[in-house]
Automatic annotation (TrEMBL):
N-terminal signal peptide: none
Gene3D superfamilies, A to Z: 3.10.20.30, 6.10.140.1070
GO terms, molecular function: GTP binding; GTPase activity
Keyword entries, A-Z: GTP-binding, Nucleotide-binding
Annotated protein name in UniProt: Gtp-binding protein rbg1/rbg2
SUPFAM superfamilies listed in its UniProt record: P-loop containing nucleoside triphosphate hydrolases, TGS-like
Domain TGS: start-end pairs: 318-393
OBG-type G domain residues: 93-318
A Pfam family matched in the record: TGS
UniProt keyword Protease, yes or no: no
Amino acid sequence: MLLGKWRITLLFDGWKAHLAVLPTKRKYKMATIEEQIKALEEEIFNTQKNKATEHHLGKIKAKIAKLRAQQELQKIKGGGGGRRYYIKKSGDATVALVGFPSVGKSSLLNYLTGSKSEVAAYQFTTLEVIPGVMKHKGAEIQILDMPGIIKGAARGKGRGREVITAARAADMILLLGDVFNYNLKVLERELYEAGIRLDKQPPNIHITQERKGGIIVRSTVPLTRMTEFEIAEIIRAYGIVNANVTVREDIDTDTLVDFLAGNRVYIPSLVAINKFDLRYGGIEDKIEEDLGRDYLPISCATTEGLEELKDHIYETLGFIRIYLKPKGGKADLEEPLVLLDGSTVKSVCEHLHRDFVNLFRYALVWGKSAKFPGQSIGLDHELQDCDVLSIITKRR
Ligand SMILES: Nc1nc2c(ncn2[C@@H]2O[C@H](COP(=O)(O)OP(=O)(O)OP(=O)(O)O)[C@@H](O)[C@H]2O)c(=O)[nH]1
Ligand SMILES: [Mg+2]
């Protein structure tokens, strides 16, 4: 029975039953994840930041990261919510073009790849992710033209969700602004909120869970930003109670939370500022000051800077060349395979033919990655620039 904020309920205690007046259930309704995050963010905002509160703030950040992870999971499970975006990867690497509306992303894609993505003088011309392929120095690089993004993209504003999904899967992100709109910090923030870490390496932390003994933290470098106690506290907030933790860099709370959340991606980036044909007095310095990082001035209208941009994309992605040699024959030194740095023998096999991984027996390698010339190696062996490789397969 309901009486406004109260309800009368029959409670059983063993064989005895009695009536009780309790607050209505509504009162107990759990705050949504979004509400919980908001409350925690407010708490951070209202807490003075100093040495004494750093530990407490670290714990709150850990809680927020955990809630966000839950939220992402719910979205994936929920399905529904709009079209699913899946861009088929092609070529040797993928670059995502991220920028505000109308800065010239589609114009740039068209120049780099010869595609025909629609260009127009109004905002939000491009409404879905459009791929093209740029060929440069023997590499085929897939470039993704995307809808412009705005503040709030990480939470799904505009076409934010599709853009973020495509950006997360990219090997490099090209942030594009123009001489009127170059506050790319807003875009970097959106990518950050979506778990994308630009130009950073994954944290150098190692955790092995144990059955007892609590959390033992060891560090191989002096820690200046967090104490070992704080590290253990945050790890506990993630539900780990017994573990050996080795920290190999001077981490802060954000880095640790990134590591524990586990769904972060680490992607290199470049910045280009377009429409430099319309430059005005002092703009170069102003852009540099506001951006706080290097950028390439370009113009899709006059093609200024575009060939340099191609070189920079190629270098930022980091490619290696692998020369194939038939067993007992001569290496093909004319046409190397171009692969992303960090590629393994398996990547080469996949590149050559889809059956190659199944038919693989072993491989022989000469060059920088070989312990000695002609070393016999397996699929997981990581190759280096200018290696010569022979792959030996089973007979079909
Ligand atoms: N002056 C000048 N105009 C340019 C340049 N690059 C692109 N534009 C113009 O800027 C407008 C927008 O170009 P788009 O390539 O459609 O821009 P976008 O970033 O793809 O825009 P959305 O898809 O709406 O996000 C068009 O009118 C282009 O002709 C440039 O280098 N200089
Ligand atoms: Mg466009």
